[in-house]
Predict the structure of DUF5326 family protein.
Amino acid sequence: MAELWKSLPSWVRNIVVPIIALVVAWKLMWFVIGVVAGLVGFLINVLLLVGIAAAVVILVKKAAKS
C-alpha cells in the first residue's frame, strides 16, 4: 500500500485524495443525518398513532358507560 501511495504523483496525493475524502465524508454525514431524521419522523408518527388510538379507546369507553 505504501508503494502505491508513493507511486502517485504529488498533485494527486495533495489535491485529489483530500477532495475525494471530503466528498465521501460529506455524503456519509448527510446519510447519517437522513437516517436519524427518518427514525425520528417514524417515532413521531408512532406516538401520534398511539395517542389517537388511546383517545378513541377513552371516548368509546365513556360513550359505553352513558
